[in-house]
Design goal:
homodimer, two-stranded antiparallel ribbon, 60% helix, Four Helix Bundle (Hemerythrin (Met), subunit A), globular, Damage-inducible protein DinB (chains A, B), 162 residues, metal-binding (chains A, B), DinB/YfiT-like (chains A, B), mainly alpha, DinB (chains A, B)
């Protein structure tokens, strides 16, 4: 095997991982859109958070997390941005995070994914384990949002469409 | 950068991806364990499937999917194994799949992750996109299982523990 082959044989490339992350974020965006405005901010099951509160957590993680990975500047996790109970405002914040992530991502070199970091000043891991946490946590809560939607009689978006 | 550096700079290595997959499968196992026996097979919200039915889907995907990736032999997706409404039997099937995946995984070379496949004779993708689908689909349904548990007044396992 030569150097070129070594270079191209990636389990997953950085570009594919970005596409994977943004595909999931796109599906979450459509899940937010599927909620009736009132229930997005009020509906819950078994004492859990509303889907709006879960969404604010997701917004506090992905954009700021990638920013911290790129800049090296740590800031505490912040899940509270003023949204005035407006889904439109939250979707706008979502789209801004999408752009922010697309802009920052190419600044993460392949070598950096295995680097140790302390995200938000408290979560130990590597860059790749942190990014997987962002994705997995989003899938986890969105799955919960799907149950909320079903319990409201609303059809969720198709899971396999990104 | 020399050839060695090229070879070692992986966004995620195959070994790490296996650990990631099995960490998620371990958390799902603890989620199954957390369910009261009766409700595992009967409880549902909003007309959705029981967590037992979702679990049988997961069992139909991960082990058989990795087997197909390794062997190249396609078989239709099968979500129906006789379990006699016994959680113990399903946990036994789960552990067998864990062993099967651990045994088969090292036979997937790094180069193969980007290979195109038609999984279960019907799902187009690459080896890596298929494996991510296994993981993401499991996280998605387990998140739903967490809502079922909360609605039953049962504390789910910690999401961050694998």
């Amino acid at each position: 095997m030569n150097a070129t082959a070594n270079k191209t044989a990636q389990v997953i490339s950085s570009e594919e991982l970005l596409k994977h992350l943004q595909g999931h974020r796109n599906l979450t965006r459509r899940t937010i859109e599927a909620f009736p405005e009132k229930e997005f901010f009020s509906h819950s099951i078994g004492g859990m958070r509303t889907f709006a509160e879960m969404t604010m957590e997701l917004l506090g993680i992905a954009g700021p997390g990638i920013q911290e990975i790129v800049s090296g500047k740590s800031a505490p996790l912040d899940e509270h941005v003023e949204h005035g109970n407006s889904k439109e405002k939250i979707l706008q914040l979502w789209d801004e995070a999408t752009e922010q992530i697309n802009t920052l991502w190419p600044q993460i070199s392949t070598e950096r994914f295995q680097e140790n970091i302390l995200l938000f000043g408290m979560y130990e891991g590597t860059v790749i384990s942190s990014i997987f946490y962002f994705i997995d946590n989003e899938i986890h809560h969105r799955g919960q949002g799907f149950v909320y939607l079903r319990s409201l009689g609303v059809e969720p978006p198709a899971f396999y469409e990104r």
